[in-house]
Amino acid sequence: MGPQNLTGVSEFLLLGLSEDPELQPLLFGMFLSMYLVTMAGNLLIILTVISDPHLHTPMYFFLSNLSLADIGCTSTTVAKVLVNTYTHQRDISYVGCLIQFSFLYLFACLDSLLLMVMAYDWFVAICHPLYYLVIMNSHLCGLLVLVSIFISFFLSQLHCITVPQLTFCIDVEIPSFFCDPSQLFNLACSNASTNTILMYLVGAIFGCVPISGILFSYIRIFSSILRIPSSSGKAKAFVTCGFHLSVVCLFYGTGIGVYLSSAVSPSLRKGAVASVMFTVVTPMLNPFIYSPRNTAIKRALQRLLRRIF
């Protein structure tokens, strides 16, 4: 097949995790169950925070926005997987591909920035408790979320402008279950070095900058916790921060795995498996990490369920 410009391609083929027809029902059930759990868990957190005045605080405001970003990240990828698996098709249109990875990077970047904002919230609450309500006022909280959305949108569009510059010498078969730019760059026969550099530069921006902010916040947090005189106070503070740290480690651990697998792994299927962890498993686990041991959310959830039933 001769070289063809990407703008002339009308559709792509998503190979998914496996092309074995016997595994398709299993994959459909797996993705559907994880998607339903993700939607139910994150929607429940959002509804609980909205319905209970006791949770109208910066921490739970950011948590509800994180849940909304998780819903968007999962819906962007899994919805197309379910449709293709159910209809026994693997195609996605050119426009659909651009829209899909644009929204995916939008929500992934928003996740990253919100985790940094939540770390800053914990830093103010623990290191400057007397000034917490003054610093973390409603205007600042809203501004932090809006700025995070704007930055995420800007970085996602940087990814979009790189793809139409590519040409291909082979069939456009993406060895993943969604349109991943890194996979498209691997399939390009034209010089994609500039595009690849830009992609990893953007990845470094929405990865390294938030990680640096989170590390700075938690260094200050831990130093403050160690100065707490009572052992029970230290334990409670460490447990509370542990929820957020667990989500941070899960998100960035899987995210780095996706980027490294696409860069150094000879097996593109391994990259697809890493992408499942990043785009599906992590958003599904976040509600289970935050909710079970969070007394405030459990009590608010009980009050919500009593009102409903």
Describe this structure in words.
With 309 residues, the chain is mainly α. It contains ten helices and five strands, in the order ββααβαααββααααα. The strands form two sheets. Strands 3-2-5 form a three-stranded mixed β-sheet. Strands 1-4 form a two-stranded antiparallel ribbon. Helix 1 runs parallel beside helix 9, helix 3 packs antiparallel against helix 5 and helix 8 packs antiparallel against helix 9.
Note the topology:
Elements: E1 4-5, E2 11-14, H1 24-51, H2 58-87, E3 91-93, H3 94-127, H4 132-135, H5 138-162, E4 167-168, E5 173-174, H6 181-187, H7 193-225, H8 231-264, H9 268-290, H10 295-308
Parallel strand pairs: 2-5
Antiparallel strand pairs: 1-4, 2-3
Helix pairs in contact: 1-2, 1-9, 1-10, 2-3, 2-9, 3-5, 3-7, 3-8, 5-7, 7-8, 8-9
The averaged pLDDT comes out at: 79
Principal-axis shape equals globular
Helix-strand string: EEHHEHHHEEHHHHH
User: How many β strands by DSSP?
Assistant: 5
Helix content: over 70%
Can you give me a brief rundown of this structure?
This protein has 309 residues and is mainly alpha-helical. The chain contains 10 helices and 5 strands, in the order E-E-H-H-E-H-H-H-E-E-H-H-H-H-H.
